[in-house]
Amino acid sequence: MTVPHATNPPAATAAPEDLRLALRAATLYYLDGLTQAEVATRLGVSRPTAGRLVARARAQGLVRIEVNVPANLRDDLHADEERALEERFGLLEAVVVGDGVDAAGPLDEAASFAGVGRAAAALISRRIRATDTLGFTWGPETVAVAQALPPGGAACATIVQLDGAVTTSDYQTGAEYVLGRCAEQLQAKMVRLPVPLYADPATVASLRADSMISRALDVGRRADMMMFGVGAVSTSTTLFEGSYLDTAMLDTLTDLGAVGEIAGRFFHADGTAVGGDLDRRAVSVSLDDIRACPAAVLVTGGAAKHQAALGALRGGLVTMLVCDIECARWLLDR
Q1: In the chain, which stretches have pLDDT less than 50?
Q2: Structural domain span for residue 10
Q3: How much is the pTM?
Q4: Which of 15, 108, 140, 291 is least enclosed, having the fewest CB within 10 Å?
Q5: CATH number at residue 244
Q6: CA torsion 239→243→248→254, rounded to 10°?
Q7: Strand 133-136 vs strand 225-228: parallel, antiparallel, or unpaired?
Q8: Is residue 241 exposed (0-12), middle (13-18) or buried (19+ Cβ within 10 Å)?
């Protein structure tokens, strides 16, 4: 990857003596590894002047910077795609991994997300602060992140569940595992949300009136960082497999233009909320809460989730993205 710094021909904008000094400063700084203070001493100029000389060398096209990825690492490092995603969607950071989710296995298994999970765990460990609250939605993506968190690598104050997970079926959401594992690895206090994801309106009102539930939801809304996956509007989604949705509900959501969901909250292709009866029945943080989070980390991959990931990005629901290379290329082709 080459990063150009100027287009002006040197002789057209500066005298040879000025260029000679700028070239000398740039050689000392970039090739010999001197600091700007050391360059100043060597050239007999002030430190600010040394900085201006180095900057002038770049502006006049005397410096060309290249970042070369070794051939044996090109399947693992994707800086060009990461930079393009950051620019296209206004992201704080994008991380692209070479391990394809679809090639690894079914989308309902955490093992399929092991590659993006490791990358997301590294990102979170690097960015989380000791005073932060980390929120999560349940799903195979966040299970993979929790599995990859190293002990003692980072710490935060609180880990909080962002969406209800209680179900009458024997489906394993992984919510308890993520909560316990993150609490242990990040030395954090746990805040559970021991409720179903969906309930009838009267029950939802009752749950929200409960002091423990309302406190958990409030902690979740104010989380400093959130990590989550997206679900597709299809029978492959974990919400269908966990009996939270049936085919009739999926048909209704499709008719309403839904393309994906986060925390049981469905959204359109532009990331706006679908709303409606199901949204009113959800016991989770809202899409607006996720949009307001300063560090909203989407962990995703797999062709079935591409459209949902795009909707989340277009809707401003993501500040940091961790995905596989197939997802990155699909998003950039749109």
Answers
A1: 2-11
A2: 2-66
A3: 0.83
A4: 15
A5: 3.40.50.1360
A6: 0
A7: parallel
A8: middle
